[in-house]
Design goal:
By secondary structure, the protein is mostly beta strands. The protein has a single domain, classed as Electron Transport, Fmn-binding Protein, Chain A (Pnp Oxidase, Chain A, Roll). Helix content is 14%, strand content 44%. It is built from 3 helices and 12 strands. A 7-stranded antiparallel β-sheet has the order 3-2-6-9-10-5-4. Strands 1-11-12 form a 3-stranded antiparallel β-sheet, with no helix packed on it. A hairpin with a 2-residue loop joins strand 11 and strand 12. It is globular, with a radius of gyration of 16 Å. The N and C termini lie far apart (51 Å). The mean pLDDT is 93.
């Protein structure tokens, strides 16, 4: 018998992970739509071809829009961007999905998916495959464009249900 959801959640809190925001855009009869959400289930899958993997809950606006558009971008956050992570995680009451972008500087690269301007790094992608993972989509995406800042800022990490970062480098003795 598999473990229950609470046991799984309680155990996986000890898996430290980088924090990113996955975004997408889509044009249809309803007009131009954008969506984004905070994600820690993201990693590199292959360098040749350049593929990434991310997992999104099927019931989110972002996942549903990615199903329609077949595009997404990943913005990898710096430690100072914890408020952006909270914003895109829906932790700020009364902010709708599209309103999450209000006042947030963005740009686009190849696909038209919004990319957070001050992110440590970003990837602009086309969906390669979507696999059913029960409550989540396992999304494999081909990276069409990528970039990073040279700020040297520490990354935003999530561990034991709170934000963290890495310790500063020290010189070897």
């Amino acid at each position: 018998m598999p473990v229950d959801a609470e046991s799984m959640r309680d155990t996986l809190r000890f898996w430290g992970s980088g924090v990113s925001v996955v975004t997408t855009a889509h044009d249809d009869a309803d007009g131009h739509q954008i969506a984004g959400m905070t994600v820690s289930a993201f990693n590199s899958l292959s360098l040749d071809p350049p593929l990434i993997l991310t997992c999104l809950s099927k019931d989110t606006t972002t996942a549903q829009l990615i199903e329609k558009s077949d595009i997404l971008a990943v913005s990898i956050l710096a430690h100072a961007q914890a408020p952006l992570s909270d914003r895109f995680a829906g932790r700020i009451p009364l902010i709708s999905n599209e309103d999450r972008f209000d006042g947030v500087p963005i740009f686009t690269a190849v696909t038209g998916s919004p990319i957070l301007h001050d992110a440590l790094a970003w990837l602009d992608c086309r969906v390669h495959a979507m696999h059913d993972g029960s409550t989540h989509w396992i999304i494999i995406s081909e990276v069409l464009a990528a970039g990073h800042t040279v700020s040297g800022a520490p990354p935003l990490l999530y561990y034991n249900r709170t934000y963290r970062t890495v310790a500063a480098e020290t010189e070897a003795e």
